[in-house]
Amino acid sequence: MFSKKPTFLKIKFIILLLSILGLHPLYASDESLSITVMTLNLHNGKDTLGESNLERFLELVALKQPDIIALQEVERKHLKSLTSTGYQIISGMNANLPLYRFGNVVLTRHKVVYDRHLYLPSQLEQRGLNEVAIEIKGRYFRVINTHIGLGWTEQLQQLNELIRISNYLHGPLLIMGDFNLEPTNKLLKNFPFQQIGADFSLPKTFPTYNPCYLIDLIWYSEHWRPVEAEVLDWDGSDHFPVISRLEFVEPYYNSLAKVEIPDLTKKRNPLLPDIGVTKYQLILAAINNSATEEIRGGGIFYHKNVSLGIESDNEEPIFSVSIDKHFDLRDYASLWGIRGKAQWSFKVSDTPDQNPWLTWEQYYRWNDHWGTKITTINEAVKPDFAIDQMYLPSEKLRYRLALDNDQGFTTGIALSPDKKQVFEIQRGRKNDEYYWSLSWGLYEFN
User: H-type helices in 22-146, by residue range?
Assistant: First the structure.
């Protein structure tokens, strides 16, 4: 008979070779892995009596020691206290002011591959989510922590956006948070994940003084199997914590990368240009005043943080290049209802017969209807300062009022029939001369 020893040595060699090459043997998925997760609305760091609940929360974490914690209603000032848990802290603040930050936080004891914060469409309080990729013992998965709004319309929009985002995140996924909806709500009928309350009979979680609603939810993809779940009898908040242990039944051994998710907030409307959109712009304008008539034309190419332009009148061409910086105004003023973006531009312009001059432009798109452009120029023959206010009562119509520091002004009405062309008529005064302007613009978005 042949000895089985060489075969056994051959198997050990193959396993060793696979491990050296960074590959996993087929039976590696048999090594079970389970994790404990918790979701809790921290009630802005206060219990129902208005007293701080942070110390009690730290005691709860020390007692239960979950692998991952999803918190909602956390202020930035609370983060320092949370560091004493020894967990990594990943914050995503949604309701913001210059000196105030309020939102969601994920705590984990394990390796964070990457994380990011994404806003959700909101009409009332600004909402958002944390996306965190985590690695535990060579297994990779993502966690989403969110807090859904209160109005029916924005709940529908936010859930649709959450589903759209999750469609880009292939692989194991856990979604936790305060949904402000019970799992039987018709808005969650087509939510493409399983909820642990379907496997375990869980009591209501809100409000703690008279629990009527199960709205603190944990959802999981098919890669997981819930082993146990519990609503903790903890009155440190107006929500009870929900904790669950899940087994990783379909482990994922490849590291997870941050996937680009298209921003659907960009409107592609030339009447009120969005921030950071690649576009081409051609303008032709006929200007008439008491002294002269002239035709002006030009074109600008915008791409990410750079724009190149050329324009000309009856005299000479003007060349310009600008470097732009973009801001999301929700990071600074979402609590004031501002949902827009800002762009600061530093532009250098030149003509064949003049020295180059500098222009500092600030453009703020506050929302879908209002935009403001502030221009400062260091060239003496042009206005040193101008402010241009734009208002859109509809997607096809724009009103404009611009003022400069030389008592000049411009009023205008513009129409865009197809979101590519803009026809505008203006009346204004410049250098003590009144003028009329009729212009046509062509825009192409990429």
Answer: 54-64, 79-82
